[in-house]
Amino acid sequence: MKKILVLGGDGFCGWPTALYLSAQGNDVMVVDNLSRRKIDIDLETESLTPISSIGERISAWHDVSDKTIEFRNIDVARDYDRLKALLVSYKPDAVVHFAEQRSAPYSMKSVDAKRYTVDNNITATHNVLAAIVEADLDVHLVHLGTMGVYGYGWSGEAIIPEGYLEVMVETPGGSLRKEILHPADPGSVYHMTKTLDQLMFAFYAKNDGVRVTDLHQGIVWGTQTEQTSLDERLINRFDYDGDYGTVLNRFLMQSTIGHPLTVHGTGGQTRAFIHISDTVRCIEIAISNAPERGERPAILNQVTESRRVRDLATMLAELTGAEVKYLPNPRFEADENTLYVENQKFLDLGLQPTTLSEGLMTEVRDIAEKYSARVDTSKILATSKWRKGM
Ligand code: NAD
Ligand code: USQ
User: Fold this and answer.
1) What is the largest CA-CA distance in the chain?
2) Phi, psi (degrees; rounded to nearest 5) at 386
3) For position 361, what pLDDT does the model report?
C-alpha cells in the first residue's frame, strides 16, 4: 500500500487513475482546482457524459468500494504554501501530476489562453518540484507528458526512442558517444509547456535528486474503466467539442449522431493512441518502478498503436456508415507524417494493450449512442486557428 497524491485527479485521465489506484489498495488523495469544469462553463460546452460533482464522485466511490478518497481544492500553480503544507502533512510516497491545461487548440485560441496555459502549466510543474525539495521528502513524481514533445516529422523513418537519443559528437581526439534528451519540437503552446517541463525535471533530478518519471503519452481514447463503470455517478468525462475533444473520441461521437467525420486537411497526420484503461495501468506500473535518487528522469512512451487520422475515419465510416469530410486544417501542422514509436518499456513491464479493433464498438454503443441527445452540434467544429490569417 502506497500513499499517492493525484494532482488533477478530477480530470479525464486523473479521475479513473485515482479510482484504479484506490481499488488496488493504495491510500489516494485527489488535488484539483476544478479549472477544467470552469473552462467548460466559459466555452459553454459540457462533457458528453453527465459527470457528477467531485463530492458526489467521492461518496459514490465510498458506496461501491467502501474505500475513501480524500479531496483538496488547491490551485497547484498559485497556492504554493497550501501545496507544500499538504506534502508535509500527507507525506505521499508518490505524486502523480496531471494538473495542467491540456488542450492544444485551447492553448492557441487567444493570447489570454496562451498566457494562461504557460502560466498554469509551467508554474504548476515548478511548484510541485520546489515543494517536494522544500518539504524534504523522497517522493517519486510521475508526470503525464506528451508524445508531442518529439514533434511530428523530423525523424522520418527513424524510431522515436523513449526520451533519450544516442548521439556521436566529433571531438579533436576522435568522437564522443552521449545520450541526450531527445530534441524538442512542439506544435502548439500547450505542447511547448510540456517540453519546458522536461527541462525542469532534468534539472531537479540532477540538482536535488528528485525521482521523476515522465510519461510521454499519446492521444487517449475511450471513456470508461472497470472502476468508472461501477456506478453512473463515477462516469468519466468525454470531451467532444472543437477545443477539448480529441480526434478519435470526436469521430466516435460524430459517427453516432450522423455528423460527417471532421478530418483536418488530408488526414495524413499520424498520431499515437492509448486507451484510458491502459493509461491507468501504465501509471500504476510507473509508480511501482521508480528511478533511484540521483538518476536522470525515467522517460517512457505511453502509447500502444499509431494511426493516420484518415485511416481512423475510414475505419469508423466502415463500421458505422458515417460520411467522411475533409476540412481546411485550422492547425499549422504537417499534412502527412510518419510515426514510429518505441514503447517496449511498458510492454516489458507487463502492459497488455487494448486495441482499437477490440474497443471501438463498445464505445460507440455504451457511450456515444447512449448520451447522443446531450450533443450540442454547434460546438463540434474546431475553430481555434494556429496563425493569424488562417
Ligand atoms: P483534463 O483537463 O481532463 O484534467 C486535468 C485536471 O487538472 C483537471 O481536472 C483540471 O481542473 C486540473 N488542473 C489544471 N490545472 C490545475 C491547477 N493549476 N491546479 C490544480 N488542478 C489543476 O486533462 P486530461 O485529459 O486528464 O489530461 C491530464 C494530463 O495528461 C495532462 O497533463 C495532459 O497534458 C496529459 N495528457 C493527456 C492526453 C489526452 O489525450 N487526454 C494525452 C497525453 C497527455
Ligand atoms: N484532428 C482532425 N479532426 C478533428 C480533430 C483533430 O483531423 O476533428 C487532427 C488534428 O489536426 C491533429 C490530430 O487529429 O492532427 C490529433 O489531434 P487531437 O486533438 O486528437 O490531439 P492533440 O491536439 O495532439 O492533443 C491530444 C491531447 C493532449 C495530448 C496529445 C498527445 O489533447 O493533451 O498531449 O493529444 S499527442 O498528440 O501524442 O501529442
Assistant:
1) 70
2) -75, -30
3) 77
CA of 174 from ligand 2 middle (Å) equals 43
State the DSSP code for 224: -
Cα 233 to middle of ligand 2, angstroms: 28
- For residue 390, the model assigns a pLDDT of 84
Let me know how many helices (H) and strands (E) the chain has, helices first.
12, 16
Query: Where residue 151 falls among pLDDT bands split at 50, 70, 90?
Result: very high
Please give the C-alpha separations between residue 253 and each of 15, 371, 390, in angstroms, as whole numbers: 21, 9, 27
CA distances from 47 to 241, 244, 277 (A): 8, 10, 19
Active site residue 371: no
Mean pLDDT, rounded, for 182-193: 97
pTM > 0.90: yes or no: yes
Residue nearest to atom 28 of ligand 1 (CA): 98
Percent of the chain with pLDDT over 90: 94
Average pLDDT of the residues of the chain: 96
Say how far apart CA 168 and CA 182 lie, in whole Å. 14
Ligand lying closest to the C-alpha of residue 312: 2
Q: Which domains does the chain have, with CATH numbers?
A: 3-379 (3.40.50.720)
CA 14/CA 71 separation, integer angstroms: 13
From the list 313, 333, 310, the residue with the least C-alpha distance to 323 is 313
Pocket of ligand 2 (CB under 6 A): 102-104, 146-148, 218-219, 246-247, 250, 262-264, 267, 269, 271-272, 309, 329, 331, 333, 382
In ligand 1, the atom with minimum distance to the C-alpha of 15 is 26
Q: Which among 80, 106, 150, 194 is annotated as catalytic?
A: 194
Give pLDDT, residue 138: 94
146 tagged catalytic:
yes
pLDDT tens figures, 308-365: 999 999 999 998 999 999 999 999 999 999 999 999 999 999 999 998 887 877 887 7
CA–CA separation, 18 and 9 (whole Å):
6
Q: Give the side-chain half-sphere CA count within 13 A for 39.
A: 21
Grid cell digits, residue 105 = 487548440
Does residue 23 have a pLDDT over 90? yes
Q: Is 194 a catalytic residue?
A: yes
Residue with cell 467525420: 261
